[in-house]
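My current task is to audit a protein record that another person submitted. My question to you is simply how this chain folds and whether the tokens agree. This is what I was given:
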Amino acid sequence: MFFLEIWITRYRIIHLFQRLSITFQAILINLQCDIHACFLRLA
């Protein structure tokens, strides 16, 4: 039972980090698009 709790906790932590990294990547892509749009407007 103890090992199962450790495994579930580890799985939740990994899942959380995956979701955070996906969100972070989406934010970075949006920022890059905004930066490109700004440059296009200035040009």
